[in-house]
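Incident log, structure service

09:12 report received: a user says their structure output differs between two submissions of the same chain.
09:20 pulled the input from the user's history:
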Amino acid sequence: MNNKVKLWFLKDIELIDIANILKQKMGLSDIVHNAEDTWEWCILHDASNNVMYDISRKHSNGYEIYDDPIGIWVRKDGLELAEDDLVSVAKEIAKILFVNVSMGEVRYIRGNDFEFFPHKVF
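09:34 re-ran on a clean worker, output below:
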């Protein structure tokens, strides 16, 4: 089973709008936005320290599923961030978006299904 430490939260606005807010408030690069059958995602970068933010959420027929968590995978130089750095990112996103951001383990079940096990909430 493939387990990842990840951040996630719920917010009932479009994913591209969330990416635009984070871009502006965190000084991130241009947004790469795309979608396929099940997932929509946005990729942003902080070029000053080579950090990539991969933000995704499920959609159905082009409509976002607001009760499905928005996942954020944060990597530096292609590797997951150290926990202290991830905590800082989680706190910053919580403050910017006025949401509770969970940090924890995301376990793949099958297909497009995942389980979320929060270790901390900010």
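09:41 both user submissions now match this output. Likely a transient worker issue. Closing.
09:42 reviewer note: DSSP finds two helices and nine strands in the chain. Strands lie at 3-9, 32-35, 39-46, 51-60, 63-64, 70-76, 79-80, 102-110, 113-121.
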